[in-house]
Every structure is written in structure tokens, then in C-alpha cells.
Amino acid sequence: MKKLIFVTLIIVVTNTVLLAQKHAHTHALGTSLQFPNIPGYQTLKCDFHQHTVFSDGDVWPTIRVQESLKDNLDAISLTEHIEYQPHIGDIPHKDRNRSYQIAVKEAKDHNLIIVKGSEITRAMPPGHSNAIFLDDPNKLLMLKDFKDAYREAIRQQAFVFWNHSYETPKNDNISFLYEANKQLIDSNYIHGIEIVNTHTYSTEALQIAYDKNLTLMGTSDVHGLIDWDYKNGPKGHRPITLVFSKDRTQEGIKTALFDHRTVVHFDNTLIGRDSFLIPLISECLVIKKAFYEPKSLVLSVELENISSCNFILQNLSPYSLIESSDIVEIEGKSTMTLHFRTKEKINQFDWIFNVINAINAPNKHPLVTKKIVI
Ligand code: ZN
């Protein structure tokens, strides 16, 4: 008898260890998105637009949590369509909180924040919007007038952003402020706008965000699997919103969103307001050391990119580069040495560069300066 208990115990222990290992292992795979903090704020990687079988997605909510852990995200929201449930015949559930509850349970032992949200789904205009930090999405159901649905979201103190605004009845892929959208924004029922959704970046949406003082959002709007939709090649990654928060809490993220503290990361590009975009790029690129080899007038500068984003930089300093034209590319999580022709020995200089794969306004790229001390 004793022996049997002992054997059983071993099997239980071994199984638990194996399960734990398997769990840890699956989360270690995938694209680990990495961005440094900026002065005064933590940089949180967020995807606030995702679907599961509880609306028109193809996966169970636990998969969304596991994908997000693989991608090293800090916060997500499963924003099921409130008014559209094509799987209702197979998965009948009246409670619009269900997918959130399953995700919270899955994320329990992990460092991932689950924000409760839903997608308010109407024909364009006004189109779709996500309301996140909701208390109870059920209360948005059965409200005929779209304004009542937005009003209820606001009553619950949600942060609301306009989704894929370029999906207009004209099919021209140009974001346009219809009267209904204007009214919602001017009534302060909408606080943000997706400038990126899935594989689309809308330069017109960026202009609307600036004109109407809205928060910039980028989301995957994933319905299938993240890896199938976005991991095509080593540079592949889902679109995310980088949120600059005082702390790693729901309240911190919510305050940051209302305060427009975001940068969108899409297709190895960073899009945002200068006040956050420039500090972010500056923290991503670290000058490790700068020196002259003995008897040389060529300045060596060791540059490390500590983010997972590749950068394409245009050198605007008076000193030309030796191994490249004015355009330099530095891969994510890598170090390279640049060689400048300084003509004479200098003690320091302000290296100014244009960041080609960053956008601070429609068709404009930010200038960043790094002080190089030799
Ligand atoms: Zn959606």
C-alpha cells in the first residue's frame, strides 16, 4: 500500500513538473517585443482590440492570453462585438463578461493585465468603437440608438476609441469625419482613434487625431491566430500601442490613455507625438562608447539598440560615415560600430539623425539628437 502511494505521488509530482515546464516553455517562444522605459514613465506594450469565439473570433480566450505572454505584452483587452455573435448557436452565453472572466483566470499566475472592454458595433457612420475599462458590457446591449450605447460607456467611465475609421461606405480607404463621428468626438464620447488596425496605417486618421486632439491607438484586431496573421518572417509582429504610464496598473494605463501618452508600433515603425516618440527612440538607442584608435582621426561610436524594433537612421551630422551612405540600419537587440570622419580630434558632438521608420505627423519623420562624449 505504502509503495503504491509513493508511486502515485511520484507520478503526480512528475506530471506537475512537466506541466509547469510545458507552460513556461510555450510562453517563452514567439516575438518578445521589447521597449525601454522613458524618463518619468514605464513603457507598457498593449493590444486593446482582439476577438475570441465569444464574438466573431476563432479561438478560446485562453489562447489570446498565451499569445500575449509570448509577445511579452503588458496589457490586453478582449473586445467582443456586443451586438454581433455569429457563434451563438454553438456557444450560447448571455453574459458579455464571459470572455473577460476566462482570460482573467488564465492570466492569474502571469504578469499580464486584462482590461475589460467591448466593441460597439454599428454601420458606418459612426462605425465601430472600442470601449475599454467598462464595468459591465451587458448594459450596452439592446440600446437602439448608438448614442445611448456611447452614453452608457461614458457613464461607466470607459476610454473609447474609434476603430478602422478608413472603412467608409465609399470603399476608398480614406478616414473621414462624418457628422455622426464629429458629434461623438465633440461630445467627448470618443477619446482615441486607431491610426493602425491589423495591416493598415491611416495617415488621414493620424491627421484627424491631431485635429481633434485624440489618443493614437494601434491594434491587431485579431480574429484568427497572431502567429498566422503577423509572424511572417523574423521582423513580423502584431501592431501594439505603447502606453507611457506612471505605474503598471489598470488605473495608470487608463490615466495615460486619457492623457494621450501613447506611441503606436506597427510593421517596424513607430508613430506618435514628438513628446513621447523622441524620448522613446532616444532610450532605445544607447551610445556604449566613443573613441579614436591610436593615430587615427576616425571616430568609432558603439551604438546599441536595446529595443526589438529595427531602426533606419539618416545621419545629419557634419561628419560623414565610412561604411555606409547617410542611411544606417540597426537591427533590434543588436550593437554596431559607426565610423565618422571628424577630420580632427573632437571631444564631443551632438549627433543629429532623422528616423526614417518613425512618423511624428503625416509623411514626416522626427529628428533625434544623441550627445556623444569621447
Ligand atoms: Zn474588432
Bound compounds, each kind once, are: zinc ion
Question: Major β-sheet, in short?
Answer: 12 strands, mixed
**DSSP E strands, number:** 19
CA gyration radius, whole angstroms: 24 Å
Instruction: Estimate the mean pLDDT confidence.
Output: 92
Poorly predicted sequence stretches spanning 5 or more consecutive residues: 1-29
Fraction in beta strands: 25-35%
Shape: elongated
Measure the end-to-end span: 75 Å
* Helix content bin: 25-40%
> Count the helices. How many?
9
What is the element string, with H for helices and E for strands? HEHEHEEHEHEEHEHEHEEHEEEEEEEE
Q: Briefly note the structural class of the backbone.
A: alpha+beta
List keywords for this structure.
374 residues; alpha+beta; 12-stranded mixed sheet; 4-stranded antiparallel sheet; 19 strands; 27% helix
Quick recap of the structure?
Helices cover about 25% and strands about 30% of the residues. It is α+β, with helices and mostly antiparallel strands and about 375 residues long.
Molecular structure report:
With 374 residues, the protein is of the alpha+beta class. It has 9 helices and 19 strands. Helix 2 (61-70) packs across helix 3 (98-107). It is elongated and about 80 Å long. It starts with a helix and ends with a strand. It binds zinc ion. Zinc ion (ZN) binds at residues 49, 51, 119, 163, 221.
